[in-house]
Design goal:
The complex is a heterodimer.
Chain A lengths: L1 H11 L3 H11 L2 H23 L2 H17 L10 H30 L26 H12 L2 H12 L4 H8 L3 H18 L1 H4 L3 H16 L1
Helix pairs in contact in A: 2-3, 3-4, 3-5, 4-5, 5-8, 7-9, 8-9, 9-11
Chain B lengths: L8 H5 L5 H13 L1 H16 L17 H25 L5 H99 L7 H4 L5
The chains are: A mainly alpha, B mainly alpha.
């Protein structure tokens, strides 16, 4: 019942684009509160999946809405509001992932390479301290598998699978041609199936071999 | 075998391919075990992604938008008004005669039943009271009657005694008179015996004729 009322309320409410224009022109704080309420959970989830960390996901969500508010005057209603918001959040995720990468690189350079294994790095590809982000062992395997993918491959998978964006929408969010989205997705799926091969019931060697063969065939 | 480019499988996998391309790719899958195995692996990898479930963040409940609140209130009022109007319009106009004909027998029957019930109750109460009252009255009457009978019996007894005494007196008087008569007769007879018998007057000697 509550869900039906919420849906009806949403249908009767102004669209995201209208509310963003109100925020832009009138600094309407109620419009901003409504946008925040609608979008905070999807954005939090996107950032958590991209970084693999619940707290970072939460921080990035806050940062995303701060950027949205700060840049309200520059908003152009040429594309959908959701596309605009996904793009802000993803760019913030990329920035954060690059910062992490730099920190890891700095620590590696600074420390004795022999002692590297004994140092706990704030690594995005490790289980890390945030086991709250997953609720099962299988979930942790998936989190780690996704973090092993390059961020641009991870982004297409996360947007398509967890947020149900069409391939064309993903292209719009990322600002790349649809064909590029398809090739990135194909590569992401090939890599993911290799990483998850033990969980999929495939022998890793045969899966890798199979991927390799197919890749060769496709190249040819 | 000529394999389709790898990126072509992506829209196919997510159901975003045009019908004709989809048909061609499906045909290829039927005849190509390598591609079939690869696509199957992709699907299974995508299926495993659902294992990573995020905990839900505590969220405040979304308040209904003012427009929706007013619309909801308006809709409720409208529905109530419509319901009232429909009820008024669809109710047939009551014809008094028809209505009376429809409900009179039932009312009569109910009234009879109720009246009979009341009467029975009243009767039962009255009967009980009457019985109680009549019991008292009867007792009084019987007492009076008994007293009356006693008085009468006493009077009769007294009268009888009086009669008996009177009778006894009469009998005594009679006895005395009889005794006097007898004695007078005895004296007469003794006197008569003193007279000498005369044959000329035999008939005077006959005691029967005397």
């Amino acid at each position: 019942m509550a869900r039906i009322l919420a849906t009806l309320s949403r249908l009767c409410s102004p669209s995201d684009e209208q509310m963003m224009l109100r925020l832009k022109t009138d600094d309407d704080h109620q419009a901003f509160a409504r946008l925040l309420h609608r979008w905070e959970e999807p954005i939090r989830r996107l950032c958590t999946r991209m970084t693999g960390d619940l707290d970072r996901g939460d921080d990035l969500k806050q940062e995303t809405f701060l950027r949205l508010f700060q840049g309200r005057k520059a908003y152009q209603a040429t594309s959908r509001f959701s596309t605009y918001l996904w793009r802000i959040a993803l760019n913030l995720c990329y920035d954060e992932l690059r910062r992490q990468q730099r920190r890891r690189q700095f620590l590696r350079d600074d420390l004795d390479p022999q002692a590297e294994d004994s140092v706990v790095l704030p690594a995005a590809d490790g289980p890390g301290p945030d086991l709250r982000a997953v609720q099962s062992e299988e979930g942790e395997l998936v989190r780690r598998a996704l973090l092993k993918l390059p961020e641009n491959y991870r982004a297409v998978i996360v947007l398509r699978h967890y947020h149900d964006l069409k391939l064309a929408e993903i292209a719009e969010v990322l600002g790349i041609p649809k064909g590029t989205v398809n090739s990135r997705m194909a590569e992401a799926l090939a890599r993911l199936s290799r990483i998850l091969a033990p969980q999929l019931g495939d022998a890793p060697s045969s899966a890798a071999q199979s991927n390799h063969l197919i890749q060769e065939k496709f190249v040819l | 075998m000529n394999h389709p480019p790898r990126e072509d499988w992506v829209p196919y996998l997510f159901g975003e391919t045009e019908t004709e391309v989809r048909r061609q790719l499906r045909e290829h899958l039927k005849s190509c075990p390598d591609c079939r195995a690869e696509i199957d692996r992709w699907k299974r990898a995508l299926g495993r992604l659902d294992d990573w479930k995020l905990p839900r963040a505590a969220r405040t409940r979304e308040t209904l938008s003012p427009v929706f609140r007013w619309a909801f209130a308006g809709a409720v009022l409208l529905m109530l008004g419509l319901g009232y109007m429909v009820g008024r319009l669809t109710t047939p106009v009551a014809d008094p005669a028809q209505l009376r004909a429809a409900i009179e027998p039932e009312l009569r029957q109910e009234f009879r039943a109720e009246f009979a019930r009341m009467m029975r109750q009243e009767l039962a109460t009255t009967a009980a009271a009457t019985l109680a009252a009549s019991g008292e009255q009867t007792k009084t009457w019987l007492t009076d009657y008994a007293r009356d009978i006693d008085a009468r019996l006493e009077a009769e007894r007294t009268e009888r005694i009086s009669d008996c005494l009177s009778l006894k007196k009469d009998v005594d008087t009679l006895a005395i008179n009889a005794d006097a008569g007898f004695r007078h007769t005895q004296e007469g007879l003794a006197l008569l015996a003193q007279y000498p018998q005369s044959p000329s007057t035999p008939s005077n000697n006959d005691p029967v004729h005397h």
